[in-house]
## 1
Amino acid sequence: MSLLLMATLPAGSSAPPKAQSPIVVGLPAGFDAKAPIAPYDGPHPSRLQRPAETFRFPIRLGEVGPSEALFAGPRQYPFVCDTEASGLGQPLVDNQARVGTPVVSKAATVFANPAPIGYSQDCLARTRAWYYYKPRDKEKFERWSEAVRDVDSVSINGTPVPFIVRVEMGTINRFIYVIAALKGPHETLAAPTAGHWNGRLIYQFSGGVGIGHRQGRVKPSRVLEGRSEQLAQGYAVVASTGTTTSTHYNIWLAEDTAVRVKRQFVALYGEPEYTIGVGGSGGAIQQYLLAQNRPGLIDAAIAQYSYPDMVTQTIWAFDCELLEYYFDRTDRRNRLWHHAEHRQWVEGLNARNDYQGEGKARAIATTTRLALLAGERRVADPEGQTECVVGWRGLTPLVLNPRFASIEDRLARRVFRRVQWSYFEDLKDFYGTDAQGYARIPWDNVGVQYGLRALQRGQIDAEQFLRLNARVGSWKPVAEMERERFWLLRGADSDLDDFSPWSAHNMNRGKTRDAPSPRFEGDRLAMAAAYRSGQVFLGRLDIPVIDVRHYLEPVLDMHHASASFSVRARLLAAQGDAGNQAIWVSDRKHDPTPEAFAAIERWLAARRARPEQSWSALRPAAASDRCIDARGRTMFSGDRVWDGEWNGRPAGPCMRAYPIYDNPRIVAGDTIRGDHFKCALQTVGEALDGGLYEPVDMRPYRARLEQIFPQGVCDYRQADQGRPADLPGADGTG
């Protein structure tokens, strides 16, 4: 597996918990999942003064790091412990009130059901350190001891030294951190030295989709193997489960944790010359948001498989299952939708009639079809598959449904039932709560004309367009949502009779067939809070970024290339220039990460030599936009190689080699920026008079359009109506 692909996988999160994993058995006194919270209405984090550090670093071996975040708010409960799975042993006992996870004595672990000696609600662990080494002619690192004789060597300043790495682990802000650096001369585990460190630090961010309430797992060997080439060059590497998005998406907590992990490193080794961020998917999101919200935390970014942020993905991702249900069930007799590539006309995301699938994606597609056939459901049996299914199935309930969590088996039933889950619930300190005590939801599809471009291009006719928009519906208010019915997902019910891969029972499709299905009105206070709290990437950045990814469109992977251009479009809108971002797309058989590090080094060196010049002016040729083939050769490079429909220019050579796709909202008329939570509305009459549907004449259908869209239809020429006016670029111009 390539380093680039490894970087996208959340640390230790891919495998389900082992049967013997400890569970949370109790909650703190006074726990109230429905406690009222006002939406965040303060300054953007880029304008906030952070408090002074209160903890004294370094954390020495055997000591315990800080458990209370410095500025990111109170501790969250319940909190699932993963110290044991990460090699730190059981968490420390911190109460006898049956709150958190039971802790047993070492002697008692031989018994099947040992009595606990106490409980851990905060999952803390004492700091430990080990030496790891890379054996000659092997890829995997192993634990080092004095008896080892097959240690590989690396060259530091022309001198060969053993490839032995000191690895330190402990807890900071309750998350598990890792620090890795070459073993220095004359050092001990308790007193490391920086003699073989090149003075540069890598912060490894990791991805995944998490909704909080867990500590997260990390394996030191995985960190070492992922950054082996850079460690051999003398870089130091730090990471944390608190900067892993399979754990959570709280960008304040990620920042708070990253700052403290760096402080621990600095206290041990000294101030780095600069810090380079690296990481894929959610790891890339963190780099964009942290560079925006906390300038100086990282000095450069290698954003792999990027998206601009998490929350604006939901704008279009929540459309996927609504559309798939429409194609599979509501309009199943229309043979047009029996071909996956026709669904792409409306969904925008890639689709393939010849898709065979691989791994988990194939399992989802195959078992869904078998289960539906076994249940004798009346559904379309499509030829091929779409990215909506292969890449995104199961993520809407994880992010939206407060009664679903993939870590359900890590909690006692009575604990699970008292908690409200979902991405929005995890961040309700920002989004706030509604009158029923649930997190406010910014998602909105009022006025969205699904398939508008397909109508304009003649791919669907007026009747198909009208039926689609009348019947597609929306999601129920979260207070009305029920448990999931997709047995491939942990935490979901498994009754085959109620099987629903689309979460259809949580959709709002209306009560009668005569009236159009209702749309979902997003909460404008939640939209404003998303912007104000720094959850949205606004497009302002003062570091160099190489945005790098494999071209995964042929396998319908969720990490589609168009997301890199969403970032670029926001940079252009906010800054008027995107010269501090390079976009690299490579064939899957080549990992361009090492070249990205080398290019970033040259870019940083140019800035040190000429600090008065812009990142754009200083960008070296090695950091230009490019596309790369399977043998690692640059196919094309330069300023115009990624031109295309997204920026209104003829397609450049890289765009022709690796074409990008759209999403449901782009097909509905939005731009590639993808930052319209709430579109401005125009009346149907205004849309008709303005020629919105041309070359199709929709005037004969005016009454039906007005019935389907009583509030009007989206006018994407105007800025997001949910964006606060006092933020930079509120008018959509930057």
Note: Confidence is low (pLDDT under 50) at residues 1-19, 729-734.
## 2
Amino acid sequence: MAQTENFVQGLLLDDDPGSMPLSGVTFVVVDLETTGGAPAKPDGSNAIGITEIGAVKVRGGEELGVFGTLVNPGEAIPPFITVLTGITEAMLAPAPPIEEVLPAFLEFVKGAVLVAHNAPYDVGFLKAACARLGYDWPPVKVLDTAALARRALTRDEVPNRKLGTLAAFFRAQTTPTHRALDDARATVDVLHGLFDRLGSHNVSTLGEAIEFAKAVTPTQRRKKHLAEGLPKVPGVYVFRAADDRPLYVGTSVDIATRVRSYFTAAEKRARMSEMLNAAVRVEAIECAHGLEAEVRELRLIAAHAPPYNRRSKFPERVVWLKLTTDAYPRLSMVRALADDGGTYLGPFSSRRAAELAASGVYDAIPIRQCGHRLSVRIPMPACALAELGRCPAPCEHRVTVDDYDAMAATPFRTAVTSDPGPLINALMARIESLSESQRYEEAAVLRGRMAALLRALIRMQRLSGLTSQAELVAARPHAGGGWDLAIVRHGRLAAAGVSPPRVHPRPTIESLRLTAETVLPGPGPTPAATAEETERILAWLERPETRLVEMTDTWSSPVRGAARFGELLARAEGALSANNSAVRS
């Protein structure tokens, strides 16, 4: 329809009135009478159902205009609606259809904020009418007087939030009669009465009124002042208790906006409500860009273990699988790495994850599972695994040191550092054999072990590729011009900054180098930072817009490394997820 765009543009507000005082906002208070029920389907399969539209335009307590008309709904009116409203089919027969009324109504509400009592009902019918006639419903602001009354008035003052009850309470000049214009005029008086009440709640702008009408808790309203004065920059925010303990640490590219969201109806987490009740102030830590903010958040959570943060609180609680340096090496579960010549796989977030990966190794290669320190001279009795053919029995010296190394230790070392193909192929062959024998549950268990092992191998090799770099300098275009800069040393963020727009970033890089953290190398794939920090840095570096400026060494991954099995891991995890869903259902 050619006229659609004009009317839609008419509803769009030229300026955001959220910060405008209520006395300066133009409101269109609307009320509809309908044939009852719900709005029609937007596909036009049913009639819209609107029988009357009444609207009053006001600003600062002054009436600016009135819109009122009956509407022919194109369908019969139920008798109970006629009894309720007094509107008969004879009255509607000469009335214009919604196709003729809607354009004029949209023009009437141009540049205003819609107000209605039980607004979702009235707005729902208006949206259905727009959808049927080809109009896009614009993002107009809507204020619901019923919702406002539920927040501003107590049960001792009014027994319910019906329009008639509120009109009597506020001594409205017009009594609601279930006719659109009368009810709209009564709603105007109710609106003004509610505005008088909002002053005691420190609500004076349109944005505050809309937020006040939402289902925010008393604690959120009482502590809303904590969000005042915070910077609109990337960084970390810390909610602190009266004794200055960190209660919760978060990060955002806009600290002020993010913290304000904790005091809105969008925040429904019970733990956050409990946290807000204990918080007395919010500390903001400004950062150069988003990556620095993410890293600082992780470090603060690890340092303070805030009670209301669920994740990243105890990065030291990781587990590693270590291939020992014995003559007949075995897998050992340890809490920390050491530069002792052992081969380590990890880190794992829990013992269960490590045990699952270890089981995958045992299923792929004949590495011994006992915990004894074996002698190359004195034999020991074999366990049941040797009798079952699951162990080459180095304890009884059935296998030489070199042969054991070739069949058990070397495949594990090779899988960790370069090619896990022999292990994965062996596991896949066993899975296929079990499936062909219709032993599907056993195949699923083995698939889970393979996924845990492969996940750890892929992760470790990705981490090792970055942490082997003594220094790496990277840049990403800054939103306001210039470049976001990061200096990474052994997988740890050593410095971050932003170069000015239209200025070569080299001087800023050199300045950052002078103040960057000194990071020493160490053993393992995470010698200088937590695995989570290095993975955040990896994600930032791997974005298409990131540019690698300098590196001390070649950044590479093994040609036949674990990453080539990424698709296999995705399929295995998908199968495990589907199996778990089936079990739960």
Note: The longest helix spans residues 440-467.
## 3
Amino acid sequence: MTSSSGASRRQVLAVAAAAATAPLIAAAPARAAGSKDPKTAKGPKTWDLTVLGTSDTHGNVYNWDYYRDAEYDDSKHNDVGVAKLATLVNQIRAERAGRATLVLDAGDTIQGTPLATYYAKQEPITSTGETHPMANAMNILKYDAVTLGNHEFNYGLPLLAKWIGQLGFPALAANAVNAATGKPAYLPYVIKEVRLGGHGAPKLKVGILGLTNPGVAIWDKGNVEGKLVFADMVETAARWVPVMRARGADLVIVSAHGGDSGTSSYGPELPNENPCAMIAEQVPGIDAILFGHAHNEVVEKFVTNARTGAQVLLSEPSKWGQRLTRMDFTLSRERGCWKVVSKHATMLNTNTVVEDPAVLAAVRGQHTKTVSYVNTVVARSIVELSAAESRYRDTPILDFINHVQTEVVTAALAGTEHAALPVLSIAAPFSRTAVFPAGDVRIRDVAGLYVYDNTLEAVVLTGAEVRAYLEYSAKYFTTLAVGAPVDPATISDPAVPDYNYDVFSGLDYDIDVSRPVGQRITRLALPGTGAPVADDARFVVAVNNYRRSGGGNFPGIVKPQVYNAQQEIRQLLIDWAQERGTIDPADFFVPNWRLVREGAPVF
């Protein structure tokens, strides 16, 4: 494993070189023989290269579910974690016996599990100097490069810089630009040189371009505003691919943290969130794209470049370390130039292997400490509270979130010009499996309910803006005619994720799912009186920073805050439970919304 200080010095030099637009050419160890013996081959001689890809590991090292305090398992019996990925990678490296093999990651690495959160919040690596568990794990695996995902920016630029300095390989993000200088803030690309054969055999230069997601400008505005600008991924690829080719790259691979749908979860004010198919189609000179962000499993996809007619290979390896992309390239050398003869991709499932013991050992102490922390009892619940129905039925467990958010904002605004305004609160059903058991409630139970590292903010909305917001949220549901059967499993539009459906507390309202999108809020009333909410009424609305910054493209919510103490919502929930010692729905559950069809409740 490379020392933190050594990795940090290399990264500083690399970023400085990138800022001067001078590429880094990193020599890789010679990796031995081509796929055919030149003395016996009868056709044009060919060599092969394998590129392995991971993405969206999200802080998973062990095959462990910290929220259940048990081995990870889901309905499809997937496994998770870098330790599983390492076993597959090591098997392929051994199988290839010295032939060239590169390993890349397409981002979203240091956020997503209590393990990652612990070393960003409870014992941040910026304070302790300890090596981040994802650096410990990935350094054992010996990646060749990692792309920065949007979640890399969640904990601020100092922690991100510390993590990058702990890596024994480059971190790439060509379209993250220093706002003051206009130059790359991180290394744009790396060129890895590999030998395709024994001593004296020709070498291949593989260019790897990293692209992060422009949505960072919205989702982590508080961390990056005025410091970083995030350029369009397509335009950035068009800028850097010719530079890489001019600097000798024989093969160009883009490692991009963006999906391939061509759509965005936000409005047109930012570059496209998921443009990887567009990059393949519009930018000449790219051989393959490893992509992530959307958490989809895309084994092998070919996109034709509109200018050259070349087929660009794309692959996305799901999420959390459940899958490993394998891209195989066959190459020939003609008149001193490399030519790709064929390329294809396959997908490996990590549930077919055991965890790599070296990775487990490297993170064991941190994993054990995290498990101990999340099992700390914070309160006792009078009854079991489940989130299983929170998407389509008003439930106490979601009201728990809204109640705490309302209390915090109300107390903070006491004595201010907004103190007289009613306080509403917004929460989303992040988890379908979260449960507060009857009896002891632990930190992992609260973390399982609120799985994101969001902070609490508040803005002022009018009655008309609240209605527009609710109408937008209600597009989550499929249209169900009166009398049509209702199945909770299919009641929502699969194109709208659960985290983009919000419920309000503080007002009473009906969502008529038999009506068209945009015409579904048939009742919006003040609690107690039942009086309709006036368009010009004013409310303080407690909301998380992701939504208030524009995440999900909800209308009217992107406006100046009247409250922003940078308090993490998950911790506020934990603190509330610890202070009271008892979680009783009678203290916070107020049924205030329902699904209806022509006024009749759906459930």
Note: The CA atoms of residues 175 and 527 lie 48 Å apart.
## 4
Amino acid sequence: MNLKLPFLKTDDTLPGGVTRPTWVILDLSGPYPERQPGSPLAALLSRTESVEALAARVQKLRGASWLHGVLVRFGEFTASPASAHAVRGILADLTDEKRVVAYLPQLTMTSLIAASGATELVAPESAEVNLGGFGIESTFLGEFLKKRGVEFENLRVREYKAALTRFSQDHMDDHNREQLQAYLDGLEAAWASDLAAARGVSPEVAAGWISADLTSAQAALAAGVITKVAYEDELVGPASRPFEAVLDLLTPHRPANAKAGRVAVVPLVGAIITGKSRTNPIPLPLLGGPMAGSDTVVAALRRAKQDKTTKAIVLYVNSGGGSALASDLIWREVATSEKPVVVVMGEYAASGGYYVATHARTIVASPYTLTGSIGVVSGKPVLTEFNRRHGLNPERVGRDRALMYSAARPYTDEERDHVEKGILEVYDRFTTRVAEGRNLSKERVNELGRGRIWSGQDALDRGLVDELGDLRTGLARARELAGLPGDAPAWNVTPKNHGPLPQFAQEAAQAARVTVWPFGGERVLTWFDQEIKVR
């Protein structure tokens, strides 16, 4: 196979007789979040390209009649498997129009998911090969905290609900290990399916690549993982240009057909909390990252529901849940919408992130999505011994029940019974929502629940989601449900009167605050611990 492509010379002169570049180089690196940040502060600080922006770039390339092909050059590609799968779909669409070659200096599980959308996969002879499958490592802090005088109350429904166990235990319990292994098995099955389709082999053959002990590009070539071993300069020639250099040659984006109406996209990203959305840059458990405030998400959904030109809504969820109250308030807006709502699940849509989706008209998940975790948890740190060691002496006046969530002492038996009663009530409400929204019996929901997580494919098999896909799939379904044409526009919704300057200042102030418990006064959580990261 001859992969010699025209390349970029040091000068800008095209070869004789060539008036326009025939190949474009498209660089992919970074985490590739699905959407651009919705808040002014996060958007200003963001320096990474999104899947949304990549799709717009590729759409321009598809319409360039003078373009023969695209070299997709993978750099430090750190996207999650779910985002990589969305990139795969974008590149696969591009192959319908152009020749697409993926150049991979690093052959990793996630880079190959994304690159499998191309028809040709090339790696240099010196490529780093890391195809050891997927794994999860979680550090348990129970013993560490106990040695420092900190205990952790952890009340949960039911056995698979592991959100707070890394604070209360010193090891992973059997139920948690079981569900995480099943989730990883689902991811590896999805990986094998994606690579098998791309390389024209059976899923069994593709699955075998994970355990084949491949250590070099030549070994990957011999196994059939890639199509050629070559360095970049062997692939490209003088009529090639970076994407940025051909922007003036690309046809301006044709306005979408807005006459019939449009689709609103509402993001729900990060731990679900009451109040307004915010971002805390401190990378600590419970404290860091984006937080989706119910006030902000509800306001955005209401704006979409009230907008006369909006005919359908897509709620994009990338969240492990959080506050049970906040999750229910967002769920209510979805459940009461007269306009069809489609939920699209990203890397996570677990616990409260699944709760908000139950009454959507359609639920779309990536095969790599972590979802389910239908369960409830409550807890608090107990600093009795810590206070004693450090000479701290909290004194109380008034009713003990009023101070039951204080970290100064553990729950009494009566208080523990009270909390357990409350979380059981929330669990019953949660399973009822799922049963009604998914047309399942409560008995079946309880079998699927108990805090257990599922991969997107396993959730599809069990009726918890409707189909596999990504945001583009969700937009297509929303247009269909609303009777809109396939090119009807989509718009990103922010709350009404979301002015950039006041909001920017407010978010900056919120980001500077550090709280030990980000869920306010709420202790009942539908939350999955997002410190679980797949590698």
Note: Residues 7-11, 499-505 have pLDDT under 50 and may be disordered.
